[in-house]
Amino acid sequence: MLRVVASTLPALCPLLRRRPMLNPEPLLRLRLSQRPFCALSSSAPPAAAAAPSAAGMGEAVAVEEHLTRCAASGRAPLRVAVLVSGGVDSSVALRLLHAAGHRCTAFYLKIWFQEDFRNFWSECPWDEDLKYAQAVCDKIDVPLEVVHLSDEYWNHVVSHIINEYRCGRTPNPDVLCNTRIKFGAFLEAIENLGFDYIASGHYAHVVHPSVEDAGAASLLQLSKDKIKDQTYFLSHLSQSQLRRLLFPLGRITKDEVRRLAAQMGLPNQGRKDSQGICFLGKVKFSEFVERHIGEMEGVLLEAESGDYLGKHRGFWFYTIGQRQGLRLPGGPWYVVEKDVQNNVVFVSRNYYSLDKRRRTFRVGSLNWFDDYGPGNSEQLKCKVRHSPEFHGCTVTKERTEENGDVFVVHLSEDDQGLAAGQFAAFYREELCLGSGIILDSWDEMSFPVCSRALEIAKLEDKSSLGKPRCCQAIFIGSFTILANSMNQEEKSSPSGYKWRVSLSMHWMKD
Predict the structure, then answer these.
(1) Cys staple from 307: which of 109, 195, 302, 357, with CB 3.0 to 4.6 Å?
(2) Residue 390 to residues 172, 189, 242, Cα–Cα distance (Å)
(3) Transmembrane region positions (predicted)?
């Protein structure tokens, strides 16, 4: 049986004492101490590193040279801290680093946020992942350390997510986890342990400067696998974080990773990729929101007419462009705007009509991997969500009192899913420049909500609105069906006809 213990590494002890970590700013920017940069093209091996011994090589597998290129094979041996999750990607990344001749230590981060939902499982939600991670490490005699970061994750990711939803915005927990936990709290904790790099199974490619130009910035480039590319989730890292990272899968496709996993005989080679928000496990997102934010009844209004359509559980359960969960007949209906102050959600069936599509938005909390960022009015590509799809765009810099420096982004084509709080990442060809957060102040291209709808939203007592319009439509439809379904014999009977009409009209009045 696997025994899970806290790490005994000295630098991780502060994490176990749950000290207040970093500053609690809404968008925490980690400031790591500058250590000598280990350039990948240097011919002199680092003194602290030692190549794996023959006894520690475990089950050696011949790996093509090009597959270890992103694992810094020409720079071995390095001391590398490898983040493993029990999944196929991180396991193959570990094996590639090991095959390249590096001295690896594996780390499993326990970031399950709290035991709030412990009754949902018969066992710990991370137990199976950790068993797979241990089995992978055992095959090549790589030590595995378990680092408990639950409180840090709660304080710097989950609590921020809850606050953002309360404000009507839609945060991205994966971006925050990378910035604040995996390459934030963890990187800070092992800073003095002599590791040259931190590696993970992300699909992205980092290009570090040569020894002759060691002062230059490290670059983040797209993965070879454009479908799996994860540069969007890494786009808000700082330069001090990026220059410490290795991504061995940066020039490998997912199909190649699966093939390697089978070739290496990994115990988890058949595991499915994880889906959804990492800290929720088997808990539904709606259950998480209900538990930590609660419910507050509000109304659904049609954006174009102001008609009262129904009720909802709280605006924080909905995001712009959402279709699921509205439970309105005659759709499809989409969430198009939210009135956070009055707890009103505006919906429409015309979300995709040509005259209501967005092309312009603003981003703040800007983060660039170099000191300059894109030029004013420069033509770039951008992603407004994790997807292989790009938008062509032009960015214009502005200075505002409320948000400081912001970029106004003009897309070359329409996008219906722009949500305040999400990240927009910017690219120059294959190079990721950085990202910013989509602001909740839109230009004149935002979805038009009629004045009647806005006035109704401000009503303190919404009980005067009566029954939802959609319910009336259902009753009228029921009356029509009843009337049309009567056979000729029933129609010839005045009493039968009157009974059906009066019953339907009674439903409509109630």
Answers:
(1) 302
(2) 18, 36, 23
(3) none
Kindly state whether residues 84 and 198 are assigned to the same domain. yes
What's the CATH code of the domain at 368? 2.40.30.10
Active site residues: 177, 278
Q: Are strands 358-368 and 308-312 parallel, antiparallel or unpaired?
A: unpaired
H runs (alpha helix) in 22-126: 88-99
Is residue 8's pLDDT more than 70? no
Specify whether 57 is located in the same domain as 188: yes
Structure tokens at 203: 């699909």
d(CA 350, CA 316): 22
For residues 203 and 222, give the distance between their C-alpha atoms in angstroms, rounded to a whole number. Answer: 8
The answer to whether residue 17 scores a pLDDT higher than 70 is no
pLDDT tens column, 207-230: 999 888 878 999 999 999 999 999
Is there a domain that residue 389 lies in? yes
CB atoms within 10 A of CB 129: 20
The crossing angle, in degrees rounded to 10, of helices 494-509 and 469-485 is 170
- Give the total residue count for the chain: 510
Same-domain pairing of 61 and 129:
yes
Can you give 173-224 as a three-state secondary structure string?
HHHHHHHHHHHHHHHHHCCCCCCCEEECCCCCEEECCCHHHCCCCCEEECCC
- 80 phi and psi, to 5 degrees? -125, 130
Question: Would residue 221 count as lying in a domain?
Answer: no
Give per-residue pLDDT as tens, 146-159.
998 888 988 898 88
Same domain, 400 and 494: no
Query: Is residue 401 located within the same domain as residue 487?
Result: no
- Structural domains counted in the chain: 3
Residues 6+ apart with CB under 8 A from 354: 414
**Quick check: is 412 in a domain?**
yes
Q: Do both 80 and 194 map to the same domain?
A: yes
3-state per-residue secondary structure call for 425-437: EEEECCEEEEEEE
